[in-house]
Amino acid sequence: MKTLKVSIVTPDGPVYDSNVEMVSTKAQSGELGILPGHIPMVAPLQIGAVRLKNGNNTELVAVSGGFLEVRPEQVTILAQSAEKEESIDIERAKEAKSRAESRIQSNQADIDQVRAELALRRAVNRINVYEHRF
Ligand code: ATP
């Protein structure tokens, strides 16, 4: 089986480096599935999960937006933040979710709604990846 080398990098350093048979994730333009030999491309990513498949095994990495660069034998993801399932602090994500929800519901003029909604999406994404809900 042919494989692709996948690197997920954040400003804090590398988070994932491995060879996989298929990568799928959410670009701004929609769901993307990448197999070895894919045409070169660059795409902005949504807050979402990167799914890394090898046989029956799928690993998940939560990413908070960024860019994906595809070359025929390599995929590089430059993410604002990225966490593998096993490094997600679920309590922290749940607290971030409640904090963002109460900010959104409070509807106060001094609350930055867009910022609160993005924080909520990051938290929900981490919870979904932790619970393997992708
Ligand atoms: P919080 O309000 O809990 O800080 P956040 O969404 O604002 O959440 P980010 O700014 O996206 O956090 O990330 C800051 C750093 O903290 C990044 O290095 C990110 O990987 C890490 N991080 C954030 N939340 C979690 C989590 N639940 N588990 C593990 N690492 C996390």
From TrEMBL:
GO terms for molecular function: ATP binding; proton-transporting ATP synthase activity, rotational mechanism. InterPro entries: ATP_F1_dsu/esu_C_sf, ATP_synth_F1_dsu/esu, ATP_synth_F1_dsu/esu_N, ATP_synth_F1_esu_C, ATPsynth_dsu/esu_N. It is found in: Cell membrane. It comes from the Bacteria. Residues 4-82 form the ATP synthase F1 complex delta/epsilon subunit N-terminal domain. Residues 83-117 form a coiled coil. One of its GO terms (cellular component) is plasma membrane. Keywords: ATP synthesis, Cell membrane, CF(1), Coiled coil, Hydrogen ion transport, Ion transport, Membrane, Transport. It is a peripheral membrane protein. Residues 86-130 form the ATP synthase epsilon subunit C-terminal domain. Belongs to the ATPase epsilon chain family. Produces ATP from ADP in the presence of a proton gradient across the membrane. F-type ATPases have 2 components, CF(1) - the catalytic core - and CF(0) - the membrane proton channel. CF(1) has five subunits: alpha(3), beta(3), gamma(1), delta(1), epsilon(1). CF(0) has three main subunits: a, b and c. NCBIfam families: ATP_synt_epsi (TIGR01216), PRK00571.1-3 (NF001846), PRK13446.1 (NF009980). This is ATP synthase epsilon chain. The gene is atpC.
